[in-house]
Amino acid sequence: MARADKATAVAELKNEFEGSAGAVLTEYRGLTVAQLKDLRKSLGENAKFAVAKNTLTKIAANEAGVTGLDDLLVGPTAVAFVKGDVVEAAKGLRDFAKANPLLVIKGGVLEGKTLDATEITKLADLESREVLLAKLAGALKAKQSAAAAMFAALPTQMAQLAEALRAKREEAGE
């Protein structure tokens, strides 16, 4: 690879690191070109799967301010740059790795924090952002409904108590 090509590749990788919410490093040794194409499809539009040389990836990551990846950049490495929902991309990688054991998730980085393979698997086990937001909204609505019911019950109970007191006084002849 000529020096100009390397500089271009480093610049592209640096842009990917800077423009991504996260990056997941994988080992792809033994996967066919067709399998890599299927993997790219399974990641969706929010992630880009790129095969790059380790030294160029190290340089680009350091230039982008991403640290902690040097130990992961050993052997054939491909990087999934995630621009959208990180959980969705992690699920895609996890599911593809289950179906194709030759794909090994090494680790990654999410918003500047280095993650190992188990943390990425835990991330993949999370529900999507939309589902979590819907659950939060449902919980907040339930609390508000309970509070509204309690506040509505107070005047009703007070009226019932006043009526019972009036009826008791009537019986007593007052």
From TrEMBL:
Classification via Gene3D superfamilies: 3.30.70.1730
Keyword Cell wall biogenesis/degradation: no
One Pfam family it belongs to: Ribosomal_L10
MF terms in GO: large ribosomal subunit rRNA binding; structural constituent of ribosome
Coiled-coil residues: none
Keyword RNA-binding: yes
Superkingdom, taxonomy of origin: Bacteria
Keywords, comma-separated and alphabetical: Ribonucleoprotein, Ribosomal protein, RNA-binding, rRNA-binding
A cellular component term, taken from the record's GO annotations: large ribosomal subunit
CDD domains, A to Z: Ribosomal_L10 (cd05797)
GO BP annotations, alphabetical order: translation
Function statement: Forms part of the ribosomal stalk, playing a central role in the interaction of the ribosome with GTP-bound translation factors.
Subunit structure: Part of the ribosomal stalk of the 50S ribosomal subunit. The N-terminus interacts with L11 and the large rRNA to form the base of the stalk. The C-terminus forms an elongated spine to which L12 dimers bind in a sequential fashion forming a multimeric L10(L12)X complex.
Family: Belongs to the universal ribosomal protein uL10 family.
UniProt protein name: Large ribosomal subunit protein uL10
Gene: rplJ
